[in-house]
Amino acid sequence: MESMTFVLFGATGDLAKRKIFPALYNLYLEGKLPSTFSVIGLGRRELSHETFQSNVERSIMEFSRRQATPSPELTSFLSAFRYHPLDVTRPEDYRTLLQLVQERESELGIPDNRMFYLSVAPDLFDLIASNIKASGLGSTRGWKRLVIEKPFGHDLASARELNEKLSKSFEEDEVYRIDHYLGKTMVQNLETFVLANPVIQAVWNKEHIANIQITASETVGVEERAGYYDQSGAIRDMIQNHMLQMLMMTAMHQPTQISAATIRAQKKQIMENLRPVPRAEVAKNVVRGQYAAGSIQGKAVPAYLDEPGIEAASRNDTFVAARLWIDDEKWKGVPFYIRTGKRLAAKSTRIVVEFKNPTEHLYAHRNEQTSPNLLVIEINPNEKISFLLNGKNVLNEGVLDEVRMDSQGDKKQLPEAYERLIYDALQGDSTFFAHWNEVELSWQWVQPILDAFAANEVPLHTYEAGSNGPEASERLLKEEGFEWLLDPVPSKSLQMA
Ligand SMILES: NC(=O)C1=CN([C@@H]2O[C@H](COP(=O)(O)OP(=O)(O)OC[C@H]3O[C@@H](n4cnc5c(N)ncnc54)[C@H](OP(=O)(O)O)[C@@H]3O)[C@@H](O)[C@H]2O)C=CC1
Ligand SMILES: O=C1O[C@H](COP(=O)(O)O)[C@@H](O)[C@H](O)[C@H]1O
């Protein structure tokens, strides 16, 4: 990998501490950083290089997935870090930053490959990008890349405006939009599991699949992010990005070969064929909810409206479920259901594929009925794939029973999403970053829902914290004769592998 400078805006912030420094450290231990590299941390506060290095060390001690203890390796890793106080609104601060970046490049004898990572509030993205250009930081003979966090815009118009502004300083292929769900092991695995297995490909279509359910449920509430979340809700926080990205990864068609460009083209096609939900039909296809007080794992928790920092009369959504249709030849007639919410019964991100069941009545003469085959892709907190099949329970007079075949990785050994994504960005591999096309099409799909929510055209159901969300979300599936498969992996079933 080519040597480079990693310029981190927001190096004194929460994300840097919890995710970015630990990710860089683990990449370093695995030999996945260039042999020589420079990291320049930025923030408004005044810090010496030494204090910054100690802060980085503390964050690694606390948050790294590999236990870190003082060692020559850690010392050598930290020696690459420098700090520069910078206010992103002051153009002169970028000029002094450029001097430091160049000094380090010549000290280390490395080319001017520069990665600008914006771990700051999104309203600063365009200003920073234009200052990078104006100051000359972006005029490199090597490569330059811009990594940005979500959210990318607040609605379709603001996302387009932001993209327009960024494109004045960076080309689309230089922009890496992080969606951390695309860094998750099982989401990345979808590409190979679905596209590279002929057995799966053969049944990955409307002939064999009855419905697909994508869930990201959380037990946490709004936490410390009331200011942001009360303006965003589940629709912007999860549906527009993570949930639609998981939908694209699940539904994309097999390209002739796998590359960033072909995967992106397939994902874009899914979004183009995703049936729009006109504003007048939002209430029929989308259910929104807000949590009331309740209890999570035996602990009483307050209602959303009683959380610190939330407006007393807020009509913000903390739960959204929706029914989607992809109008192409592969998926015509197959409903996709998505569902996400805070303060639900379990932390669980999963994709459940329910297959059609033409063998249902095969054992009718014995008053038995087969169950539909299910494929369960667990993404978080477990990472595994299970197949639920019909089997014969030889210990119980051969009656039909569910048989589970599953795979399980050793979670501790797996890199974190941020490790994967930073590594990919350093290599210039944009497969698992959100392309502007995908972001724009996602906002386009979501916009009528935002409008209908804002105009209160969709009922806001309350649900008890610790429940499975509003009962109204059952209706979405009942209309096609299905139900949510919330915990479809039976613990008692026979394990075959
Ligand atoms: N934290 C998380 O878990 C997640 C965060 N994100 C996104 O990551 C980004 C960063 O979030 P997070 O770390 O939580 O935010 P924090 O509020 O913890 O950190 C903000 C950072 O921005 C810096 N900053 C703010 N204003 C300026 C300025 N005018 N000039 C220079 N630096 C400035 C602060 O430095 P200083 O105070 O020293 O000026 C600080 O380092 C956001 O886009 C957020 O949406 C996305 C997913 C998860
Ligand atoms: O991006 C976000 O994701 C988290 C959930 O992420 P996970 O990796 O724990 O599934 C969510 O809590 C947060 O509100 C949202 O901004």
Structural class: alpha/beta
**Total beta-strand segments:** 18
Uncertain regions spanning at least 5 consecutive residues = 492-497
Strands in their spatial order, largest beta sheet: 17-8-11-12-7-13-14-15-16-18
Total number of domains: 2
Distance between the ends = 38 Å
Percent range for β-strand residues: 15-25%
On the 0-100 scale, what is the average pLDDT?
94
Total helical segments: 14
Helix content: 25-40%
Instruction: Give the overall shape.
Output: globular
Radius of gyration: 24 Å
- CATH fold-level label of the largest domain: Dihydrodipicolinate Reductase, domain 2
Instruction: Say which molecules are bound, naming each kind only once.
Output: NADPH dihydro-nicotinamide-adenine-dinucleotide phosphate, ligand LXAUTJHC
GO molecular function: glucose-6-phosphate dehydrogenase activity; NADP binding
Protein name: Glucose-6-phosphate 1-dehydrogenase
Pathway: Carbohydrate degradation; pentose phosphate pathway; D-ribulose 5-phosphate from D-glucose 6-phosphate (oxidative stage): step 1/3
Active site: 242 (proton acceptor)
Topology at a glance:
Elements: E1 4-9, H1 14-29, E2 37-43, H2 49-63, H3 72-78, E3 81-85, H4 91-108, E4 114-118, H5 125-135, E5 144-148, H6 156-166, E6 175-177, H7 185-195, H8 198-203, E7 209-217, H9 226-251, H10 260-273, H11 282-285, E8 286-292, E9 294-296, E10 299-301, E11 319-325, E12 335-341, E13 348-355, E14 374-380, E15 384-393, E16 399-408, H12 417-427, H13 436-454, E17 460-464, H14 472-478, E18 494-495
Parallel strand pairs: 1-2, 1-4, 2-3, 4-5, 5-6, 7-12, 8-17, 16-18
Antiparallel strand pairs: 7-13, 8-11, 9-10, 11-12, 13-14, 14-15, 15-16
Helix pairs in contact: 1-2, 1-12, 4-5, 6-13, 9-10, 9-13, 10-13
The structure holds NADPH dihydro-nicotinamide-adenine-dinucleotide phosphate and the ligand O=C1O[C@H](COP(=O)(O)O)[C@@H](O)[C@H](O)[C@H]1O.
Domain Glucose-6-phosphate dehydrogenase NAD-binding: 7-189
GO molecular function, one term: glucose-6-phosphate dehydrogenase activity
Pathway: Carbohydrate degradation; pentose phosphate pathway; D-ribulose 5-phosphate from D-glucose 6-phosphate (oxidative stage): step 1/3
